[in-house]
Amino acid sequence: MRPFTNQPLTPARVDHVLIAEMVERGARVIDIGCGHGELLSLLEEQRDVDGRGVELKQANVNLCVARGMSVIQGDADIDLIHYPDKSFDYAILSQTLQAMRDPRHVLEQLLRIGRYAVVSFPNFGHWRIRLKFLIHGRMPVTANLPEPWYATQNIHHCTIKDFLGLCELVDAKVVKSVALNAYGKRMGLNLPWIWHNLIGEQAVFLLTRDG
Known about the structure:
Blueprint: H1 14-22, E1 28-32, H2 38-47, E2 50-55, H3 58-66, E3 71-73, H4 76-79, E4 88-94, H5 103-113, E5 114-122, H6 127-136, H7 160-169, E6 173-180, H8 193-199, E7 202-208
Parallel strand pairs: 1-2, 1-4, 2-3, 4-5
Antiparallel strand pairs: 5-7, 6-7
């Protein structure tokens, strides 16, 4: 029996809600960079998943374990190679890809160990970021990128267009994608990618290499 309820600690982030909608009920899931376990908690509550987590910070691992979650300490840049092929239905990386030392390697590992990979990230191509560059000539600080350049963990900023290029490079098929505007609302599916890249503040992608 789990010692605590698996209710999320805080109201669910909008990208977490979108990810939960993409995950099949009862699936085997690994959440890479799971933080305090909010997404795992949401997936267990709403989708009844068999969830596992990997988290770099030991304090966060301890918190997750205390809440009854199956989470281990690990570094996604080097530790994912130890998981067998297709050992999970979904390998999830939520708002963490831009903090990886080698995003291409990590994405390839997600696609290898999961039937599907789910990735969410802030869009560095948003018009407000472009405007701040143009006017101020300095690294922007926004709600989705809140730290100044010297304190951020994000070392590989990318745009939605950049990510699509990476998907093509690693032979990943886009099963579903959603861009969110500044108010956390889903942008129209029929809009061309150029508008998603310009107006979307963050994006969520469901990917696979399976036919």
